[in-house]
Design a protein that fits this description.
Layout lengths: L4 H19 L2 H26 L7 H17 L7 H23 L4 H21 L1 H4 L5 E2 L7 H28 L1 H18 L4 H27 L1 E2 L1 H4 L2 H14 L6 H19 L4 H15 L7 H7 L1
Antiparallel strand pairs: 1-2
Length: 310
């Protein structure tokens, strides 16, 4: 029963998010949408940063590329009833991009990999800013509005983000219990030793990198339809790249439920700080994050184990 309890709690959490359009205001629905969206992003980062131990800062690159890919497909006519195909197309473009770029960047380790992943964000941001004939350049790109009133649109994107989060969660469970998860943990512990015992470390790292990208691409594609406008500054935000690892570290890296717990805590904390510290919100938020990470280096889900061993 103890092993099932976290899954039951997660199911109740999903049901609570899904019920908000029927029992709460549009503001609460928006918060629920962000909770699901950031849950999917945190689960995505956990594949490469949590299981594999590679400090990736490419999250914004995947979300931004998914945003532009989905928006361009939608403006090209993949809209209305076909809109989910635009989101799938955005996710596919990002997955392909991650597989190709992963062959290059995953040859680096540690700080070099971290710097290389940040460079991906900057390169794509500059490309989006410069290619004005396709992306609208610095002025941004307008996306076709989804038909229907605000209540309908709110439900559509809430349930879309929930579905993406659930898919990322299912992938996390499968990886955690499968051969891939074992291989990724071996890479995290000692990559050279893992290679010596026959683990194809390059292939496993590419799998993790693609998994960390594809759900972010889907989130980005859906988000562009939700806000109906994207720009290089917003789509390739360095702040988003920093939020992803922080959320996972708060909950517990390399765990199944840690990213969900960490993202929920982060979003609720962020909303509280934004409301009460309008002039100093980012500074206070940064201070709270540093304090939490300092006292919870293994995340909330590992706290009880450290207490038990003390």
């Amino acid at each position: 029963m103890k092993t099932r309890l976290p899954y039951i709690l997660f199911a109740l959490w999903v049901l609570a998010l899904a019920s908000t359009p029927w029992v709460a205001s549009n503001y609460i629905v928006k918060i629920a949408t962000f909770l699901a969206m950031y849950g999917a992003i945190a689960l995505s980062w956990n594949f490469i940063g949590g299981f594999t131990g590679y400090p990736s800062f490419a999250t914004a690159a995947f979300v931004g590329l998914g945003s532009y890919s989905g928006a361009l497909l939608q403006n090209a006519g993949v809209s209305g009833a076909l809109l989910p195909l635009a989101w799938l197309g955005g996710a596919a473009v990002v997955a392909l991009f991650a597989a190709i770029i992963g062959l290059i960047i995953l040859r680096m380790k540690g700080h070099y990999f971290a710097i290389g992943s940040i460079a991906i964000v900057e390169v794509l941001s500059q490309l989006a800013s410069s290619w004005s004939s396709l992306t609208g350049g610095g002025e941004g790109l307008n996306v076709k509005f989804l038909a229907g009133g605000p209540d309908f649109i709110g439900r559509v994107f809430l349930y879309t983000m929930i579905v993406i989060m659930l898919l990322a969660f299912v992938a996390t469970v499968l990886v955690d219990k499968g051969k891939l998860g074992f291989g990724l943990r071996c890479i995290q512990q000692n990559e050279d030793a893992a290679d010596m015992v026959g683990i194809d470390t390059t292939r496993y790292k590419i799998y993790a990198f693609v998994l960390s990208a594809v759900f972010c691409g889907a989130v980005g594609a859906a988000y562009s339809s939700w806000v109906a406008y994207i720009s290089p500054t917003d789509s390739f935000s360095i702040l988003l790249t920093l939020k992803a690892p922080v959320m996972v570290l708060l909950g517990g890296p390399g765990t199944v439920f840690g990213p969900v717990v960490g993202s929920a805590l982060f979003v609720l904390m962020e909303e509280t700080i934004w409301a009460k510290f309008l002039d100093y919100n980012q500074g206070v938020l940064g201070l709270v994050i540093v304090v939490l990470i300092f006292f919870l280096p293994g995340g909330l889900l590992r706290l009880r184990w450290r207490k038990g061993s003390a």
